[in-house]
Amino acid sequence: MSTWTINFTEQFSRDVKALDKGGYTQWLKQLSFLKQGPNQSHSALKTLRNHSKTYRWRKGDVRVIFRVIGSSKAILLQSAGLRKHVYSKMKLSSTSVGEFAQLLEAENNKPEVVEQEAKVLPVQQALFELPDDNDVEDAFIEEIFVDLADLHILSIPDEYYSIILDSTSVKELETTAIPKSLISRIEDYLTSPVEHQVGKVYSLSVGDEMSSINSQPLESFLLALDPQQKKLVERNLDSGPLLIRGGPGTGKTLINLARMKRIVDEHSQQDLITSMPLRIGFVTFNKSLSQSAQSLYLAISENNRNVQVEFKTLDSIVYQLGSQMSTTSPSISTDDTSLIFKALNKARDSKSDEYSYLQQIVSKRGSSFILEEFEQVILGNDLLALEDYLAFQRKGRKVPLQTKERTGIHTIFTLWIQVYKQENKVTFSMRRLKVQRALSRNQLTVRPYDYLFVDELQDLSPVSIRLLTHLVKYPERLTFTADTAQSIYQKSPTWSSISEKLKFHSGNSHILRSSYRMTKQISDAVLPLRLNAGDAAKEDDGIENAVYSGPVPLWIETDRHAQEHRVTKTIISLVKEQSINPSQIAVIVPDKRHMPPLSYALNAAGVTVNHVSRDTKLNLLESSVNILTAYAAKGLEFPFVLVTSVSSDRYPQLVAMNKCQDEQQKIEELERSKRLLYVALSRASRGLWMFVDRDNPSQLLQELNPKHWEKAD
User: What pTM was computed for the model?
Assistant: First the structure.
């Protein structure tokens, strides 16, 4: 007989102390039977199997809310208390903070306490009135047949929540004061949940057919707010800095846009005769996402001449600010490893005794690795001083570097900077650091934003984040959104090391645990590729609950040369046979070279396409299939996604692997490719197709669990 794990939340811990003060704690020991697991411990739980459900244990007037997670053989105690108070706590965090055994041990070792009636709080008085344990009615366990999220979806008035949540069935509701119309709504929802859930998300009117969803443009799919999003949108606009984290499909970008709309709406109601126009900024690293966000914003908000709303990439802002520092504009150089060898030549020309050793470092590590060390570590963290670089913990990089080698790399870096200056060139990282330092010294003229929203935080270096804090009037009006698993280059900065303006705690840091767009089937299928997935020792902001269900993702194995035909055939089926609006469909390719042949095949079949890139924005209303690379797809989402060319020379890229000099670099590159494939696959919300090269499959596929995929030839 296997033993199940029983954990508890921070809320449950507080509830235990409150009930303990009330003098009634025997109920705590009586929960020990749950260790046997639901199949053995209680008849009410025997039907659970591998699903997750929320239950209520009740004894007298005491209620305990707990969730059983069948797939993990775990039980999470979420809240406890008197009947009239416990349900308001169901919306709190469901993060485990300890094992139930700890509470039991503390209870068993607790000394006898003499009751002091005068100190009893009014709320706890009812607990004293409970009879002794031997006289209390038997305890009951019941599945919570409708939960808080359901009530949000059904637009049930708040005043009825407690009555509904404490009931065990629709029949029992009929004996309460709940209006019959609401009871009918709940009953209809329980018998046909999919129609109600999807209808709510897509804002369908009464009488609309389910099939009408498929014909709507992408814009309609992306604009609906779910319950957890609404709660954050309604949060005080000046209570930041605010950090919102969440996995794909949790609507982080939409929260930003809805809060921006709220600012505009509230500002338009004020007396604006003497005030300056309000300035709101939306900044992200990705131009495609910036353009898409702007399109979404225009769809939900009307123009207001008293508010200036700007959608920009970080580097466009940096370029604008940098123009104040120089009349000449150096040319941008990216991934130019040849300049590293020019830096080595400077060491040789100066007859440096170090030249031989520096040459050995480049030969051993490779110029690509050295260039990444310059850009991501030294420039990205402002480590221009050797002592700062030597003291820095290189989180996210698998290859360890000893002090001597770091010193050599820093010497090459210094020479590399000199080469760039001589050739009047600059990298993006150089320019960001230069502007950030100038801002910190008040050397630039800046009109700060009244409110600043930063999307896809995980793609920004500490220097970039530090720079952005100078672009808003008050830190309280700064909002960040992030999904750590979507970072192609893993970073783990501490906020204290970035800026004293950024202090995050439970009050201003939120994790979106539920996805109202991505189906459970897609969430389970892509989870093994997610950063920190299954690692209890590391914090993860992934999805714990995918609210809706859908078809199992398809794993399609084809010959390499037959992929365009198979992809085209699938899309024609979606568009012509299932009446899917083409804008809801995205084909994600590993690189731009795969776009032309796929476009040709689709055009020949009568399907128009839209290439989403830095220069072509995502069109939310046009009826065209979207084709984009995995890099360009970051932060975007589509109902139907087809990921192509999942082969051993694309995930990971063969060119990148060939540049690796040792096994440690290969491991680092493999992890980067794993995160990139996760980005590609997790763009899907309702339907996912993965096209695998039959003769040359990617080794990353070994990470996936076949039981969550339907394989096809």
Answer: 0.72
